[in-house]
């Protein structure tokens, strides 16, 4: 494995080759930290020691007609999660304000389901307008499933900056994880939101039984699509889903995957997303040498690391929260840590 040539390519904002990406995934354990040090040079070239904080707002939980095998909200799923319809505007405002008080730069507005109706799109557009009116500096990313051209344009007009729709896995693996829609449906949706002027955010879930070759296939597909941010999730094998009992990845495996993503996407936002706590475990701070973005606090239907612990981890590792004064640690004592959702939706009473 020629780390020197990979690093030179990355520093020039050039991707490594698929063959080199496979070499990274097969890197021996005793060489992983040398790999991390090399990839860290690329990460720091484009993002210095900044960490971008993102925060999920779960607008609607459960009640989905898709059968994605990894998802706790899937059709016919038996996962023990809180299911509710749309939050009220004031509930959304309260959750967003708590996140922003902790240094969050991007708010991700997520709703379960195949895609929104026109009425639901109007509802979310109104929420986005409220957020942008109160906090014009915050980035807003919508994640509502499949949308039409008109719906995407409405979200953009309301002030949405980005749209997330993960491809989740390689095209060659897709039918093994979902049958109610296709890989092509997802890539077409990304083209729709790009056409509306929304920044495309799309990533994957590692640990769903894919091969190393399929991991590489997915990551290079995202590069070809020109996505602006790549969230890397690690499977949470929820009880009551087809992937219940799937093995948890080892921390060094996760570092290999994140290093590979960084070398393929050298100057792109790479985000450590759901599952980092369970899979990376004590090596979470090391992952900051590879990613420049994380979610703060909880995820959609699972608990993340406590927000205050995330902030402490960032500070202890010598990183700074993007947008914060570089001479002070972000929050820690005075911050309002985002409301915890205890793995089953927001604690705020939903508008059921």
TrEMBL record:
PROSITE patterns: RADICAL_SAM. Residues 325-352 are annotated as: Disordered. Signal peptide: none annotated. Its cofactor is [2Fe-2S] cluster; [4Fe-4S] cluster. It holds the Pfam family BATS. Pathway: Cofactor biosynthesis; biotin biosynthesis; biotin from 7,8-diaminononanoate: step 2/2. It is an enzyme of class 2 (transferase). Binds 1 [2Fe-2S] cluster. The cluster is coordinated with 3 cysteines and 1 arginine. [4Fe-4S] cluster binds at residues 64, 68, 71. It catalyses: (4R,5S)-dethiobiotin + (sulfur carrier)-SH + 2 reduced [2Fe-2S]-[ferredoxin] + 2 S-adenosyl-L-methionine = (sulfur carrier)-H + biotin + 2 5'-deoxyadenosine + 2 L-methionine + 2 oxidized [2Fe-2S]-[ferredoxin]. Residues 49-276 form the Radical SAM core domain. [2Fe-2S] cluster binds at residues 108, 141, 201, 271. Its EC number is 2.8.1.6. It comes from the Bacteria. One of its GO terms (biological process) is biotin biosynthetic process. InterPro entries: Aldolase_TIM, BATS_dom, Biotin_synth/BioAB, Biotin_synthase, Elp3/MiaA/NifB-like_rSAM, rSAM, rSAM_sf. GO terms for molecular function: 2 iron, 2 sulfur cluster binding; 4 iron, 4 sulfur cluster binding; biotin synthase activity; iron ion binding. Keywords: 2Fe-2S, 4Fe-4S, Biotin biosynthesis, Iron, Iron-sulfur, Metal-binding, S-adenosyl-L-methionine, Transferase. Homodimer. Catalyzes the conversion of dethiobiotin (DTB) to biotin by the insertion of a sulfur atom into dethiobiotin via a radical-based mechanism. Belongs to the radical SAM superfamily. Biotin synthase family. This is Biotin synthase.
